[in-house]
Write a structure and sequence with these properties.
This protein has 326 residues and is an alpha+beta fold. The chain is 17% helix and 31% strand.
């Protein structure tokens, strides 16, 4: 469930597309968080921090950050990974719940390299959390992107945090873990192998297709064309309604998609339940410390379309979901 693809144009602009595939409507709204907010990881021995950067994020049920970008041009994307296993809680390591994992990086780092270096010096630990809306354990990995075109895929396997950091890592989906996905890719035409381009909705097939198409995008004629081009890749990797199958529990329909224009500071959102695309200019939102949290109520205003930067309204920040257990 979910696909992320990064595209750097010859002009140096960076666009990141992301599909959110899920079991049901997450009641997603967009939130604008200013710098200066104090947060913690919501577990015993939690990491604590003060946000150095403002961010615009897509929420889930108004209790978690699933996707977003910050004022420095860093983007974070939470995707499902069934193989994730966080291990027993180690109180010597600062802890975080999955609901706030992406927000931690958006709050604290300007580049992928800075985030990766921090993980080496301060080995935070992701901890178990149950999604109360679907009564299942949250097993996820995190993908980071930045305005230079750098990428990192962060996975927790058997209690170990594996960091795959390389500008070449432009695509991520779900199972199997990232190293296996990269190895699998080599068997296909265009990547050293002979197998034809696959067409199913399985994560490994979406990984191959997104990798193939994002490498072949023509140089855009304009910013508008660039957004349309990365959206074409994301729609090719999307899961149509009706693909949910009890025999394939890790396959869900695409409920929304985003494009982060990291060079321009634009964040685009398209719901699968609506024909409208909206976008916000992070540079047009004052996200300096001391400014209010603001919300774009997509649930209450389904007819919004186009530039919605001025439609964000002051709101009480949502409370991140804590360490709910089964």
């Amino acid at each position: 469930m979910c696909t992320r693809a990064l595209w750097s144009t010859d002009a140096g602009d960076v666009f990141v597309g992301r599909n959110m595939d899920w079991l049901n409507d997450m009641q997603t709204n967009l939130w604008a968080f200013p710098a200066g907010i104090e947060r913690d990881g919501l577990v015993p021995g939690a990491a604590t921090w003060t946000a150095s950067y403002g961010s615009v994020v897509a929420g889930a049920y108004d209790v978690a950050t699933t996707d977003g970008m910050n004022t420095a041009g860093l983007a974070a994307h939470v995707l499902w990974l069934a193989e994730s296993s966080y291990g027993e809680r180690d109180l010597s390591r600062p802890g975080l719940v999955p609901a706030i994992w992406a927000q931690y990086f958006l709050d604290c780092f300007a580049t992928v390299a800075d985030a990766v270096a921090s993980l080496a010096s301060t080995p935070i630990q992701l901890t178990q959390q149950v999604d109360p809306f679907n009564n299942q354990e949250v097993t996820v990995h995190l993908i980071l992107s930045d305005v230079t075109g750098d990428s990192a895929v962060i996975e927790c396997i058997d209690g170990r945090m594996d960091v795959h950091h390389d500008r070449a890592y432009t695509v991520a989906t779900n199972s199997p873990p990232f190293a296996e996905q990269r190895k699998h890719l080599l068997g296909f035409e265009g990547f050293g192998g002979t197998a034809p381009l696959p067409g199913t909705t399985e994560a490994a097939d979406r990984f191959v297709r997104a990798s193939y198409y994002v490498e072949r995008l023509p140089q855009p004629l304009s910013d508008r064309h660039a957004v349309a081009e990365i959206l074409s890749v994301m729609r090719n990797a999307a899961q149509p309604f009706g693909t949910v199958d009890p025999a394939r529990p890790n396959i869900s329909s695409t409920i929304w998609r985003t494009v982060s224009s990291l060079s321009r500071g634009l964040y685009f959102f398209e719901s699968s339940f609506s024909p409208n695309i909206v976008w916000a200019d992070i540079n047009g939102l004052d996200l300096s410390a001391g400014q209010p949290v603001r919300k774009l109520d997509l649930q209450g205003h389904p007819d919004l379309v186009g530039d919605v930067t001025g439609a964000f309204e002051p709101a009480e920040p949502f409370a991140f979901l804590g360490a709910v257990t089964a």
